[in-house]
């Protein structure tokens, strides 16, 4: 089975937008363009809208097909380096430089289209040489120049205000601005004079066809080994969101893989379980870091927010479409046999063996790993808790025994 690379990237883009939304309780102030204050921008659909703007400009500039594809992927992923520093000002100079460097480093590991790395690296460079890396216009990749302007327009744009009330102000701010390449600015002014551009800006959040209709045709597919390598990359992004989770996703993945091997699952199924472990917490990107990193007890409201992470895991992974089994196993790791789990309150008859194993692995890893507020438990103490939970009908006795057997066998 092979998996659509474009769908994978679109799903990650959705996760990145959720991560940016989750940081909206923090100030996002940019003062580098006419002293505009961006503190009210919530970054809803930021990646999607930035990509739409970038593709519209690229079509005006007659970019080649290969350049269009690179621009498309880079636009969707341009803020992938920002997840672990969204508690800072979105546009402080330190944040800009670091998230460009981190984004370039992360995307170097893409199994295909890793040529987008330098585009992301320089997507905040100013054409007048005042950007984080001091490159001037002719030294900056054209795709980076386009994303730079598209990102700025999207950040200025306010989803809560009708486009007809703000488009003239945005155009005035962008016209002849020395931060942007002249040809890119000219392309934006041509695009922005058409009403359809602003109608699309207003409606892109719920009409996927708007972006679909102008996206380049990317037919590349990943095999499961390539998808695993991609999932490893994303797991590092997930775990960087919180100071508590260092290598949590990789550890769950390794446990799930060991149990799968122990049970004699096929090689493909073992690999699927490994990937499910790597991606099981991708929904945590939607959770504010202030809650993830809270050292004391959570309030009822905070716990309700935490519970939503598995919901978002399913939403994100389901958008790939080709991995329904992986999505189900990954998103069911907090369900319990007695129906007291979350978010779907599944019963024993609704939880397959794979989901039961994933849940037990998650609990074991959470108990045994160090956290800033406590040391990890010993293996024996963790299994005492697991066995008690199994005796009370909360988790699967068989899955607990399978984990114990796998750990003893290796």
Automatic annotation (TrEMBL):
GO molecular function, one term: hydrolase activity
Record keyword Cell division present: no
Organism domain of life: Bacteria
InterPro entries (alphabetical): HD/PDEase_dom, HD_GYP_dom, HDIG_dom
Keywords: Hydrolase
Keyword Hydrolase: yes
E.C. code: 3.1.4.-
Enzyme class at the top of the EC tree: hydrolase
Name of a matching Pfam family: HD_5
PANTHER family noted in UniProt: 3'3'-CGAMP-SPECIFIC PHOSPHODIESTERASE 1, CYCLIC DI-GMP PHOSPHODIESTERASE PA4108-RELATED
Protein name per Swiss-Prot or TrEMBL: 3'3'-cGAMP-specific phosphodiesterase 1
Taxonomic placement: Bacteria, Bacillati, Bacillota, Clostridia, Eubacteriales
